[in-house]
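Progress report, Aim 2. The chain analyzed during this reporting quarter is listed below.
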Amino acid sequence: GVRKGGVKDLCFLGGYELPGLLILYETQPTTVGRMALRSDTCALLTLSLNLQARSYSVICNAGDLPETARKVQALPGPAYGA
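Predicted structure tokens for the chain:
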């Protein structure tokens, strides 16, 4: 899961019935010296937010992304997404 201090970036996703949140986070901290052993330490988590019920649902979770991933950006309509 997403640990405290592991979030690299996030963005809100519009154009859906419920607002969405895309979070880019690091699953395990790594250093330059350890890159040869583990370099795919980032993941994406997409949440659907139900603000009235104060709850969320996990839409997608993608792991094993390169440690060099730094930013996520929402796309405007009509494409939407990130």
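The chain is about 0% helix and 40% strand. The radius of gyration is 14 Å. These observations will guide the mutagenesis work planned for the next reporting period.
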